[in-house]
Amino acid sequence: MKRRYVLTAGSVLVAASAIVSVPVIARTADAPGGKPNDKRAWVRVMDNFFDPRSASVAPGTKVTFTWRGTNRHNVRFTRVPQGVSRKGSKILRHGRWSRMFTQPGVYRYICTVFSGMRGTITVPPPTPSQGKGAR
């Protein structure tokens, strides 16, 4: 006997909105050969989306954007903390581009090639235990 599973449009919409609305902490690791507090995180530039779309990283984290799709994309910052450069990547099809996030705040970025492709990196202020040396 075959079982049939019927998904209503409402259940699919609820599941999809839950996936999109949950912020993700970027994959981080101590930098190889670096100091114990040197941090790295990665964002994949896929075909028409960033993975993860939202990330939270500690101050002083180097985020590497890695192109994994077949289409051309770039990373352009549209909102950054006051006094921070909005400079982003060139348009690439393959490769990597990195940026150090030292200033606490919200960094919003987009791909200017494909509308709707956007992401956010949040850098919280250092905790009292991190002190000023973490900046």
Structural commentary:
Strands 1, 2, 3, 5 and 7 form a five-stranded mixed beta sheet that branches. The protein has a four-stranded mixed beta sheet with strand order 4-9-8-6, with no helix packed on it. Helices cover 10% and strands 36% of the residues. It has one helix at residues 9-21; strands at residues 27-30, 39-46, 49-51, 54-56, 61-67, 76-79, 95-101, 105-110, 118-123. With 135 residues, the protein is mostly beta strands. It has a single domain (25-127), classed as Immunoglobulin-like, CATH 2.60.40. The chain contains one helix and nine strands; from the N terminus they run H-E-E-E-E-E-E-E-E-E.
Write the layout of secondary structure elements.
Layout: H1 9-21, E1 27-30, E2 39-46, E3 49-51, E4 54-56, E5 61-67, E6 76-79, E7 95-101, E8 105-110, E9 118-123
Based on secondary structure, the structural category is mainly beta
Question: What are the secondary-structure elements, in order, as H or E?
Answer: HEEEEEEEEE
- How confident is the prediction overall: mean pLDDT? 79
Q: Which stretches are poorly predicted, pLDDT < 50 over at least 5 residues?
A: 5-25, 27-36
- Principal-axis shape: globular
Distinctive features:
mainly beta; 135 residues; 5-stranded mixed β-sheet; single chain; 1 helix
Short structural description:
The chain has 135 residues and is mostly beta strands.
